[in-house]
Amino acid sequence: MSPILQGILTIIIGVGGCVGYFYLSNAVLDRIIFPARDDDQGRNIALATAVRPWLFLLPAMLALGLYLVYPVVGSFIRSLYNRSGQEFIGLDNYLQMFSEEGFRVALFNNFLWILFVPAAATFFGLLVAQLTDRLSWGSIAKSLIFMPMAISFVGASLIWKFVYANDPDIGIINAIRDYFGADPIDPMQIPFWNNFFIMIIMVWMQTGFAMVILSAALRGIPEETVEAAIIDGANPFQIFFKIKVPQIAGTIVVVWTTITFLTLKIFDIVYTMTGGNFDTEILPSYMMDYMFRDDGRATAVAFVIMLIVTPVMIYNIRQAKREA
Amino acid sequence: MADLKLTDVGKTYGGAVEVLKHIDLEIETGELVVFVGPSGCGKSTLLRMIAGLEKITAGTLEIDGQRVNDVPPAQRGIAMVFQSYALYPHMTVRDNMSFALKIAKKSKEEIDESVTRAARMLQLEPYLDRLPKALSGGQRQRVAIGRSIVRDPKVYLFDEPLSNLDAALRVATRIEIAQLKEKMPDRTMIYVTHDQVEAMTLASRIVVLANKGIAQVGTPLELYETPNSEFVAQFIGSPAMNLFPGKITETGERTTVALDGGGTAVSVVPSRPEDKGREVKVGVRPEDFEQTEGDAIYAGRVEITEALGEVTLLYFEATGSDEPIIAKLPGIHREMRGRDVRLGAAPEKVHIFAEGRSLLFRD
Q: Does residue B240 sit in the same domain as residue B325?
């Protein structure tokens, strides 16, 4: 069968399936289970109305159960088994992991990441949003700053590999050093700080996201409150920090937490830049090291990551709801 | 000494769009001056120029004899109350009111004292620790007023402060503002509104703005009794003054006009001999009409009546002009609809305009 035909067939089956499901399930509900006739008419209509939302939610809940809940539970169970998956070893994977130097480094680095990246990206995003607000060329500047968002993590890492390249003819850092007569260095091999050089890539990418959301939030501040502050004698700094920032505090938190859990899931950047060498390992890349070698250990790491992300996520969703 | 003086003030946006020009106005200390005008006449812009939120592009603004064109708003000795209240939503009432003083680095005792005094004046004491969102519209507006009182400015600026309130609250807050003014006789207030009733009740003087400039300045009753132009005559008073085209037939101490609609009007407005035969418009306020059997200014058939109890409004079919002729008769008049009515007015109540200007106000 030709691919086109296949595609069309898929669409027909998919859409037809949806329409069929909703038509048939509602028909069954209205005609057979709670028919709107005879003595029970009023009661049956009310019952059908109460049940109907669940009919509409059912497919989505099934899909979420299959692709989200089941894998989470499955991963947890898998993490209690050994490398081959044959032998139940309880929490040994976790205990072993915590006693290992590599994991502790990854955990520590991960905390550096979630401290630095969201803070820096939100700060720069807010700064750019405020500075470009009234500029005639502000929207051009914003588009440029937003652009890295459209690049894949691996692509962005490759760009920064050039920036950090250990060769004055390629890397800008070493080109500058070379200009001042210094010897070339490899930023990826400077202990501790190499983490931050990698984080800058993520900051570079996420600043655009923070900027777009915060710029919209800044626009939403009633102009009169700013004017009232001007009349009250506040200078631009006071207006920004005491009037504007508090009014968009909720949005700042949402942006911050969103970038936090994006950061917790980052794997590609570290993998591309150093492969986790030179003490730059973070949890997701640590997990990848064990994937397919020791699935028990890898799922244990995955579970730890989930435990760290979940509270941030819950807070984020709550805050976002309150904003709306 | 004039507390606030505008000399040939103008405003253009981007060097091309002219919004205001040649504004000359002196406001004495302790006055409550109301700017009124149709929407888009620049009354809010003028207020914002006095506040320092808009740049003055021509002329000079003096406060207390000092040119303040380039003085930042906070140092002009003004405070402003906005239509939307403009409270800082993340601060309590107390913080809202003390913000300016904190910025000015006043001592804690001084701040507390000013805030307490203002809160007592406006009955805001129970709400000092609430956030603005926990207040009603009227309370929010009082906080906004309190925020300006705390700064103890020489000039208070109000930008349509009552427009966001419902009708009952508007009346109550209007009276509060009037009482506030009584308590601070040496403070100047400038108040922008499009509501005539606010203007008439609050103002010691009204400034009518139109066509990028000032149409007339005067006490509320001066504007009502002796408007200098057709525009002011129709703008002040509700329903608007009726206008009838005609020609002057007799001149002197009193002027007689033969109206195009067939009636005759006599007015105490004097005219000069050369005015004889001049095309003019005669203006009579709806409430100045009375039913008459003798010489009528207007005779016509009542189309619609509106009985308000204290007065009855009669709408006549419009002949010639676009606006219907309206008469406001005191008391209740039943079954007027469809009847032919003859209307006259006392000569003292008849205004005469030539080319849009009142004959009382010519050179």
A: yes
pTM listed for this prediction:
0.79
Subunit contact A232:B51, Cβ cutoff 8 A: no
User: What structural domains does chain A harbor?
Assistant: 3-78 (no CATH), 92-323 (1.10.3720.10)
Last residue of a domain, which of B203, B234, B265?
A: B234
A207-252 pLDDT, tens digit each: 999 999 999 999 999 999 999 999 999 999 999 999 999 999 989 9
Q: So what's the ipTM on this one?
A: 0.83
From the list A106, A77, A62, A43, the residue with the least C-alpha distance to A266 is: A106
Write down which residue in B192, B207, B234 finishes a domain.
B234
Contact criterion met (CB below 8 Å) for B63 and B76? yes
Q: Where are the alpha helices (DSSP H) in A153-278?
A: 153-163, 172-179, 193-219, 223-231, 236-238, 245-247, 249-264, 268-273
Query: What are the residues whose beta carbons fall under 8 Å from the beta carbon of A102, sequence distance 6 or more?
Result: A281, A286
pLDDT in tens, A174-187: 888 888 988 888 88
* B279 band by pLDDT with thresholds 50, 70 and 90: very high
- Say how many C-beta atoms besides its own lie within 10 A of residue B240's C-beta: 15
CB < 8 Å to A233, chain B: 72-75, 100, 103-104
Find, among A74, A105, A143, the residue nearest to A279 by Cα: A105
Is residue A285 scored above 90 in pLDDT? no
Contact between A227 and B86 using a beta-carbon 8 Å cutoff = yes
At B338, phi and psi to the nearest 5? 80, -5
